[in-house]
């Protein structure tokens, strides 16, 4: 998998939205284990793990392909342009 770690949740949300506007699907689905249903039930960790939660909020999974074709180049360019506006 290919992931990108954004500066904050707001930037991740903006990137997802702008990529969606260009018909590029990205996902975030990494729920910290301690906050998952089983984690809340069986975990021995404290109620919060701030670093884990922060990284989870900023992580975004990018589309992944084997090889590089023209439509992948479009995705890379779109991500690069959007990130340039966010920073």
Automatic annotation (TrEMBL):
It holds the Pfam family DegT_DnrJ_EryC1. InterPro entries: DegT/StrS_aminotransferase, PyrdxlP-dep_Trfase, PyrdxlP-dep_Trfase_small. It comes from the Bacteria. SUPFAM superfamilies: PLP-dependent transferases (SSF53383). Transmembrane segments: none annotated. This is DegT/DnrJ/EryC1/StrS aminotransferase family protein. It comes from Desulfatirhabdium butyrativorans.
């Amino acid at each position: 998998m290919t992931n990108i770690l954004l500066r904050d949740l707001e930037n991740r949300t903006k990137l997802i939205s702008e990529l969606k506007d260009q018909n590029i699907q990205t996902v975030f689905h990494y729920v910290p284990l301690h906050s998952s249903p089983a984690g809340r039930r069986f975990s021995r960790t404290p109620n919060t793990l701030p670093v884990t939660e922060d990284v989870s909020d900023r992580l975004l999974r990018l589309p992944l392909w084997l090889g590089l074709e023209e439509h992948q180049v479009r995705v890379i360019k779109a991500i690069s342009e959007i990130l340039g506006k966010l920073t």
